[in-house]
Structures are given as structure tokens and as C-alpha cells.
UniProtKB/TrEMBL annotation:
Transmembrane segments: none
Official protein name in the record: MbtH protein
Superkingdom in the source lineage: Bacteria
Gene Ontology biological process terms in this record: siderophore biosynthetic process
Gene Ontology CC: cytosol
Organism listed in the record: Actinomadura namibiensis
InterPro entries attached to this UniProt entry: MbtH-like_dom (IPR005153), MbtH-like_sf (IPR038020), MLP_fam (IPR037407)
Length: 67
């Protein structure tokens, strides 16, 4: 199965550095990550991440640079 054919449901998760990832819905988020309330297909979740994660630098780097 390719990623394009993946119709499983995922949750968008974010860590303390404001980095985003996908996680299979129904499984507890990994330690250090929390669900952000967005679920859907892989494509839907990736589209949400593309919309909200516009600065890929970790939070600590952004803070140190005064962003």
C-alpha cells in the first residue's frame, strides 16, 4: 500500500518544541507528544500540518533568535 492509498485514520500530534507529526488514531500519543484535536486521513492531516507548521525551527531556536 502506498501513502496515497492509505485511508487509515490519523491524529496530528505536536511536541514541546512545536514540531508536528502523524500518529495512528486510537493509540496513545508517544511520550512527549500531545494530540492537537485534528484527525483524518494521512493526506488530510498532512495538509493541516502544512498549514500550521510554517516555521520548522524548534521552539527553543525561535525563542533564542527572538522570533
Amino acid at each position: 500500500m502506498s501513502h496515497d492509498d492509505d485511508q487509515r485514520t490519523y491524529s496530528v500530534v505536536r511536541n514541546d518544541d512545536d514540531q508536528y507529526s502523524l500518529w495512528p488514531t486510537g493509540r496513545p500519543a508517544p511520550r512527549g507528544w500531545a494530540e492537537v484535536g485534528v484527525t483524518g486521513t494521512r493526506a488530510e492531516c498532512l495538509e493541516h500540518i502544512r498549514t500550521v507548521w510554517t516555521d520548522l525551527r524548534p521552539r527553543g531556536v525561535r525563542t533564542a533568535m527572538g522570533a
